[in-house]
Amino acid sequence: MTRIDKWFLSKLKHLVTIENIVRKYHASNLPVNLLRYTKQLGFSDNQLSRFLNSNELAIPRLRLVSKISSK
User: Fold this and answer.
1) In Å, what is the CA distance from 47 to each residue of 4, 28, 36, 55?
2) How far apart are CA 66 and CA 7, in angstroms?
3) Residue 71 pLDDT greater than 70, yes or no
4) Which of 31, 54, 57, 71 is the most buried (most CB within 10 A)?
């Protein structure tokens, strides 16, 4: 049996759940609150662009328009 903490596994599961939600959108229709939340969780622009089948430059532009910082 592994000693992986259930708390850690639940956090990973939540990240995968959010990834699957983001994958249902395109860069053009991603809700601002969801973009903000993904950035708060630590998803990179590169990860988000892959989830959205978009180029990596679209995400910083979207953040700029939505007034969301990169941190």
Assistant:
1) 25, 16, 14, 10
2) 32
3) no
4) 54
d(CA 44, CA 31): 17
Q: What is the pLDDT of residue 2?
A: 79
The CA dihedral of 21, 26, 29, 34, to the nearest 10 degrees, is 30
pLDDT digits (tens, 9 = 90+) for 26-70: 999 999 999 999 999 999 999 999 999 999 899 999 999 988 876
Q: Determine the pLDDT at residue 68.
A: 84
Domain ranges of the chain: 27-71
**Could you tell me if 27 and 59 are in contact, meaning their C-beta atoms sit under 8 angstroms apart?**
yes
DSSP state of 25: S
Rounded-to-integer distance, Cα 22 and Cα 55, Å: 15
